[in-house]
């Protein structure tokens, strides 16, 4: 039996086929591996690009945030510097004002010291007369009213209304004693007013003092009298203290007494509290004014006043000043007396409650 022999050609062919297959596998493996590396590389590059973009964005945001902080810090620094500059300016202004005030205080202290030295060197004031008011700061003039003139006549109303300001008090005091009438607050003020006038008489003047109510009377003596000498002034004061405020107000009687002075007065000072309630002219001349009435109307009082001033201007018109003390229920008095004084270039004074 013949042994089986393999064909060397077929074996070679088989080896060739196997080698080709192995080569194909190797080639396929290389191709697959190469493509895998290329994909991985591309994936890595893509992810790197994304990461870089995200990091760049984050860095930009952080950069913007840091810039904003820097801007805010710079703004705050500017505000702080501005506040410090303002405080410095305010402090400088306060220091200047303080220095000015210190200078003013030193000047005031120097002025006060100078005044104190001047007061120490001043002589005590001498009384102008026995009735001089010793209160500090006594007024020498009253809103331009000065006691002056070569022949001065002073008329003082001594009627019952000169005791008080309120009508009820006036009526109540009418039934009291003479001493209580003399203690009336308005009468005391009227006497102080006359004392004020007498203490300021010019030394070269001649003076007459007339008190009037229902009638008129001269104090001391009828006619002119020299104002020189404290003794003369003291006599006027003594007689003034003896007067009792009572009766009606007859201004016409006072003017008639004034007309008896010869030569006539150049300056007249009247101390009263309202329009007259009685006249010397017969009542029949005024239909609204009848004798025996307890209350005289305002219209009647004004007519009596007009009649009295008519008699005043019938002879002469000396410069007349009126010091009008308060009285309840006589609103027409101030305008009427103002017209009288204005016509003679005089003054009407309604003094404050604390004068004189």
**Fraction in beta strands:** 5-15%
Assigned CATH superfamily of the largest domain: von Willebrand factor, type A domain
Instruction: Output the number of helix runs.
Output: 8
The CATH class of the largest domain is identified as Alpha Beta
Overall 3D form: rod-shaped
Which keywords apply here?
2 domains; 356 residues; 7-stranded mixed sheet; alpha/beta
Describe the model.
By secondary structure, the protein is of the alpha/beta class. The chain folds into two domains: 105 residues; 199 residues, 3-Layer(aba) Sandwich (Rossmann fold), CATH 3.40.50. Helix 6 runs parallel beside helix 7. Strands 1, 2, 3, 4, 5, 6 and 7 form a seven-stranded mixed β-sheet that branches. It is rod-shaped, with a radius of gyration of 60 Å. It contains eight helices and seven strands; from the N terminus they run H-E-H-H-H-E-E-E-H-H-E-H-E-H-E.
Topology (elements, then pairings):
Elements: H1 8-121, E1 151-157, H2 167-174, H3 178-182, H4 185-198, E2 206-212, E3 216-218, E4 225-226, H5 230-242, H6 251-259, E5 267-272, H7 298-315, E6 319-324, H8 333-343, E7 348-349
Parallel strand pairs: 1-2, 1-5, 5-6, 6-7
Antiparallel strand pairs: 2-3, 2-4
Helix pairs in contact: 6-7
What's the short version?
This protein has 356 residues and is an alpha/beta fold. It has 8 helices and 7 strands.
